[in-house]
Write a structure and sequence with these properties.
Length: 172
């Protein structure tokens, strides 16, 4: 007998470069879990020397006072989306649609660990190899090749998620 379970994913997006930070996946999200993920993000951004000015979030009850306080301690102004307005958080909705269409609709997910592993691999692809229209068809983390492409240079293909995604680079 197969039992279907709902799994939840928490992610953050840097709107300037469309870079996604995957916080985690769980079957039982709780306020304490969401707050811990916010702390993890804060530590990561602090290590990178990055600042956050705004955090746009929905009105889910998992985002309670301590979650907002962690964000405010980073210097971020917390803004809640209006009720029943998915367009207010269009970048998050777009990422969810992309992750589903390009990855999750093609993979049978059997548990939290697999979902986390597949999404981490997808986010690496999304951040480092997938072009985005909103940033002039660049990847959020631009690939800097020291080898310019000419007709004689080869192309190297890297497969991700068992061949579901393909990335191409100039061969060294």
């Amino acid at each position: 007998t197969v039992t279907l379970r709902r799994l939840y994913v928490l992610f953050f997006i840097d709107l300037e470069r469309r870079k996604v930070f995957l916080a985690g996946a769980t079957g039982h999200p709780a306020a304490a879990w969401a707050t811990q993920q916010a702390r993890n993000l804060a530590a990561t951004l602090e290590d990178q020397g990055r600042a956050v000015r705004f955090l746009l979030r929905d009105r889910d009850t998992k985002f309670v006072g301590p979650f907002d306080e962690v964000m405010r301690s980073m210097g971020a102004r917390v803004i809640r989306t209006p009720v029943r307005s998915p367009r207010a958080n269009a970048f998050a909705e777009c990422f969810v649609r992309t992750a589903r269409a390009e990855c999750l609709d093609w993979v049978l997910i059997r548990g939290e660990r697999q979902l986390d592993r597949v999404l981490r691999e997808f986010v690496l692809h999304y951040n480092h190899a997938r072009p985005h229209r909103g940033i002039d068809l660049e990847a959020p983390v631009p690939y800097s090749s020291i080898h310019p492409f000419n007709g004689g240079a080869g192309v190297q293909r890297t497969d991700r998620i068992g061949g579901l995604l393909h990335e191409y680079r100039v061969a060294a």
